[in-house]
Amino acid sequence: MGMNNKTTGVLFFSITILMLTFASIYNWFQGLGGSGAHAEVYDELFTLYWSLGTVIGIAVYAYFLYLVYTSWGKDSGEEMTIGQSPVVRGSNKGAIIVSFTIALFLLVLSDTTFDSIDFFEQHEEHTTDNSFTIAVTGYQYYWDYEYPNGIHLTSVGEEPLKIPVDVPVVFEVTSGDVFHSFALPEHRIKIDSIPGRSNEGWILADEVGTFPIMCAELCGDEHAIMGGEIEVMSTEDFDAWYNSGVSA
Ligand SMILES: [Cu+2]
């Protein structure tokens, strides 16, 4: 019994999927593109999930290819009849090893995931005396920002949301109409913007520059263009701007 077309197809398909895994490894070495304290935590978590996923993926495919090649052309000669128990195959030892490995993987994943959730949610443990809270309100289809000293900005104006570098900043997010989601993709944070509710999140930017802000909750026909920019400034530049009290 030779290799038929269907089997050849399945084999090639599997090998292609393996190759795609390697392509993703290559992509990962180019960096994940995040910025700030959250990106470090989030990207580490992503790398962990991705690495364990790759290990499992390669193991499954290797076992699959092993089974294909070792049983090639062999007729097991078994013919099942009704009421007959299936032949027991495999080994208990193998099953135990696989179960323990999977349990270990899940333990490592859940422990790291819960640590990351704590880091994202417990801003009280990370804020400093310089930290402050910006009130963010979502509207169809713009963001409204209010600083503690009364400076008021919106994403409709040309001016971006401004924050200082190396200072943990808290966002208190709500909505004036429908559900939105205040998202800073490079800083790896999304905060639900819900009418009548206040959700908090924080970031610690470690890089001066301009980064995108997006709405990450379908909120109407102009949802796609509901965005803006966040400008991370040097502490001196930020203080000079902030103390001038210019409100756009
Ligand atoms: Cu929106």
Kindly describe this structure.
This protein has 248 residues and is α+β, with helices and mostly antiparallel strands. The chain folds into two domains: 5-69 and 98-121, no CATH class; 132-244, Sandwich (Immunoglobulin-like). Helix content is 40%, strand content 23%. The protein is built from four helices and ten strands; from the N terminus they run H-H-H-E-E-E-E-E-E-E-E-E-E-H. The chain has helices at residues 5-29, 37-70, 92-121, 235-244, and strands at residues 132-139, 142-146, 152-154, 161-164, 168-175, 180-184, 189-193, 199-204, 209-215, 227-233. The strands form two sheets. The chain has a five-stranded mixed beta sheet with strand order 3-2-1-5-8, with no helix packed on it. It has a five-stranded mixed beta sheet with strand order 4-10-9-6-7, covered by helices on one side. Helix 1 runs antiparallel to helix 2 (37-70). The longest helix is centred in the first third of the chain and has 34 residues, at 37-70. The model has no long low-confidence stretch (mean pLDDT 88).
